[in-house]
Design brief:
heterodimer, A: mainly alpha, 0% strand, B: 114 residues, alpha+beta, three-stranded antiparallel β-sheet
Amino acid sequence: MTWPRPSRRSPQELLERRDRRLMACYPASYQAANADEMLGVALSGAAPGQRRPSLGEATSLAAAGLRMRGSALLGAARGPAWGDAGAAFAVIGPVLLAAINAERVTGSLFASAIGEPGQVRPAGIVLAAGWLLAAAAAMLGRRRAAAAGASLAATGEAVRLAARYASDPSSLVTSWWQLILALPAGSAAALTAWGFGGFLAASPRFTPPVMLTAPQWAALAIVPLLSFAAGAAWLGRHERTLRPGAEGHQAPA
Amino acid sequence: MSEKALRTPAFLVLTALAGQPQHGYAVIEDVLRISGGSVRLHTGTLYALLDRLREAGLAEVDREEIVASRLRRYYRLTGAGAARLSSEAAQMQRHASVAAGRLRSLRSAGEAGI
């Protein structure tokens, strides 16, 4: 028969350890400034011999900490880093997409000029013009015009990809990055190489071609969003390190 | 904090600090006393309140001490906090006196009707 090993920690130590764990719900900067003081208050309110925080105490710490983390996230989402990232993306994205469409149009013009099979698609010209207008509007600070132009052109790109998907599903993957220019080059390459390597190799060999699976669709949708968020967060952190003292809890008077 | 009426816990914390600068646990005990045992603030709630009151400029840190190798901060009411507490208290007093007056007339009307 085995006996439970007696705990060597005093009730006070156990309670403090548990309260400290609850403090982890708070953002790190808040913990650094306040955890010690709050632990003192939480321990002062404990009954003699109490080993774990009361339900009310635990709930209040966890709820307040998580609420603070939530509002910090929301604040970051409204912060200047997101605005800067969006502004840069609003110019760079459309310029690149205009260039891609222009290259496609000139390529097919050249092909038809030298008698090779190739079709000049008016959609490419329209899309190139649309992206150029969106980039110009973004550069001029005409946000609504830029947003409208980019939305229209993005819809055009989506329609073009959707139309090609039925006959040539792999084109959706190879062209997807054009819609998600915020994607850092590394993860775009990783996504294409590892997530879709098999698909890209297999799809064109079959008739009807191999279609994308649900997880692959999900990866196409989620990875660009995550990458954009990671980029904005990195930009925000980088800016905070350039401004010492900008982060952290309000200093006591 | 906006100019909306203070909620009871915030009002009670300001009332506690109006007595004298107090540290966190003393505020909890004082609020319990002021409210006649009906409001027991938990640590997370107290600090969320203190943060909001400090952000609104109604309370501030008075001083810091190290007690049993642990940081202890004392909080005090600011001038703006005292003004806000005073206007809230006056408002509550007005409401309370109207309520008391109407209850008196309700009772006397009831007695006259018997």
